[in-house]
User: Fold this.
Amino acid sequence: MARTLYGGAPADYVATAQSVGGYQVPAIAPGMILTAWSALTGGSALTDLQTAVGAASAVVTADVNGRVLFYGPDGFTADIWVQDPNSGVRYRIRGTSGGAGGASLPNTLVVSANGSGIVGAYNCDGTADDVEINAALAALRAGAGGTVLLTAGVYNLAAPILVEGFDDVDVEQDLYLRGAGPKNTTLNVAGGVNCGVRLTKCVRAHVWDLGLTIGGTSDGIQAVATATPAAGHRSAWMSTIHRIQVLGSFAGTDSGWALDLDNMFRATISDIEVNGTTNGMRFSSSHADFNPGDMTVSRCFVDLYTGAAGGAAYSLESNAGQQNQNLFLTCHSIANPATTGMIAWRFIGATAHIRLVNCNVEQFGTAAAIASAAYDIDIDFVHVTLKNGSVLADLDGYGSRVRCGLAYVEPSATVLLIDDDNTYSAKPNVAGPISIYADTGSTVNADVADFAVVRDCTYAGPGTVAAALKVGPGVKMQAPTIALTDAAAIATDASLGSYFAVAAMAGNRTLGVPTNASDGQECTWRLTASGGARTPTLATGTGGFVLASGTPTVTVSAIASGSTAEITAVYHGANQRWRVSRYQIFTAT
Assistant:
């Protein structure tokens, strides 16, 4: 049979250095020896070759101009890869029956959608199109990586598309899965399929310009960690997810996530739009030996308007390790005003050092929910709309900050702006600056009875705003009363707060040396006598109490039964003494 000529004269085919996906692809050098491979699905090595002058050869050798010109195996007419065995870079060569051939972009495989009219390296028939796409990804993974380019059209998935690495952080290969735009290239995830695209095995993945449709329990894009120590327990790293649209069922019957990314590290995620789902994006940590994060997420919009109760637009979770150091820029969300229990931003487990900037929240039951183990969450809302029964910030963790350019409270709505349940007094949560507009008939409450700092809150509108929020410039600490145990020597841990009380002092007592004091700290002790007159004695010596000298002099006297004494002192660190500034007795009446 006739042999097909591949390559051509320098004017027809010379591979020059070029940039592919931001990476420099080298040229074919003069005299370079290349191996040949079939570009067909499941293609193998080709060794039955001939040079341009008809000499038998098992390889392809470039001439002094960097051109390739050779004959393929007898009767072979399909495209051929020529590969640099050193770098692994491949060049795709098209054959002709007698003239010059051509070439396509190096390390790029085109997968065509059913009915697209385009003949690619892999061609889908509209049924289980994941098979062809995964074959193309596997072919690139076996070489030097590269791009699987999906034409415009619909791809029906009966199983996930697998974008996989090598379970080894030292094997760095980039794989691109790229469509023709979210409205042009659509991955239709069949019911019961776990996800549309799965990133795993420490892959460096780049998923761009795609649309996905999901329903039921299916996710759009997943990142799944493996337990392999060589992979650092990462799912994907140095990766990008860009220009993606995920559409749900628009019925509130689904429970999957548009993006469900576990143990992803140093990634950039941008221009994501989610509509018609119950859940938006989840970022999680699942292994005690790895703290994923270091990600930037920007220009995202999650619309859960048709979602179900309990849905979350953005969720940061840690089951093991710590999810940390993520930055979210201009990430917006909207919920169904008729659905209760929806959360815009949720922080669960050991999540920390998270920053939100210029984010907008509309119609959620809770704008930000920070659980008890989460801390150092810095939230900057540009605008939040609060409906009846909603909460701006539910703060169970510690050391977090919440700001809001405008907290708009709808007419006749009763809302809780701050619900603080922090139990760590050394690291209070901070609320403010917050600009409140309380519309007609609305009521804005706040629970800051635990440990919270409220500052720089401004308010306007005809509605009612709680006094705790009318702090204005400056800082106000809301601290609970710390109950002390009655004993011969009453012990105080000064790090727990600033106001301490003994409810029933049943005898003459010594107020012992407080522990964990800090310079400049002011504390008050409330001592209530019980069962008779009681006289307190203040501990002296290092860390103890000193009374003022001169006139007026603070004196300590007995407390009548049922009466209360209040003692206020300021700790002077240099002298290691509590300087008593006030001792007052209040009768039972």
Remarks:
- The longest helix spans residues 130-141.
- The radius of gyration is 34 Å.
